[in-house]
Amino acid sequence: MRTPWIVASIFASFFSSSSYSDFVGLNIGSSFWVPGVSGSFNSSNNSNVPVSNRATSDRKSNQSFSVKFEHPIPALPNVKFQNFALTNSSTADLNNVNFNGTNFNGNHTSNLDLSHNDLTLYYELLDNWVNLDLGLNLKQIDGDISVRDETIGINETIPQIYISARFDLPTTGFYVGADLQNISILSDNKAENSTLMVGYETSSGLGIEGGYKSFSINLDNASSLNAQLEYDGLYVNGYIHF
To answer: Which terminal residue of the chain has fewer beta carbons within 10 Å of its beta carbon, N or C?
Structure first.
């Protein structure tokens, strides 16, 4: 994980110089999310393997890293990149369930890795105490789902409409906002993201925010895998804005 931070530091030093500070913006952040997960999955339309991990004590903390770059050129979109580590596990009592060609009976643990990268190209429609962004997000999922030694890999890209709104409370540094990626397009697979946030940013650009984040995915015969999974929980994010 050191390489992204080194690259981000180089960009931050470059763009925070006086010759660029009035023309471009750079936001670098890292967040922690502790979601519960529920749903089910199967292979080749066989019986479903149920997934349920809602107990607070069983949840795993997942980290993400983000870089957002904004510029004053009207014709070119702004760019946001975010990397999500998203792993979880669940134990269920299976009754002659076939997954990836193997039958399972009794208690078995499923391991879910839906780690993904989001590349967002967007335009600022409003940029004052009310901020409104609209664009396209490409969600590239590189993970797998397994039951014991049987594993099916996931490598899918899902385009989504991206909407972000933020309302600054004048002179206070506080803000509220929401990020929505709830419309998937041009793909049989569907994904939805919603983030509701409250934050505070200092005059120097250091900020912290927290709130509620949800993520759901519906995989339709992706490498013979079908899945309907929902994640949700609280998160906290720290960032610096140049």
So the answer is: N
- Domains of the chain in sequence order: 2-241 (2.40.128)
Cα separation, 33 vs 87, whole angstroms: 11
Mean pLDDT, 10 residues at a time, the chain of 242 residues: 48 45 82 95 93 80 95 93 94 93 94 97 94 97 95 96 97 97 93 97 96 97 93 97 90
Give the residue from 73, 56, 69 showing the smallest Cα distance to 27: 69
Cα 229 from Cα 219, distance rounded (Å): 9
Model pTM? 0.85
Which DSSP string corresponds to 58-114?
A: G---EEEEEEEEE-S-TTSPEEEEEEE--EEEEEEEEEEEEETTEEEEEEEEEEEE-
Looking at the DSSP bridge assignments, the partners of residue 171 are: none
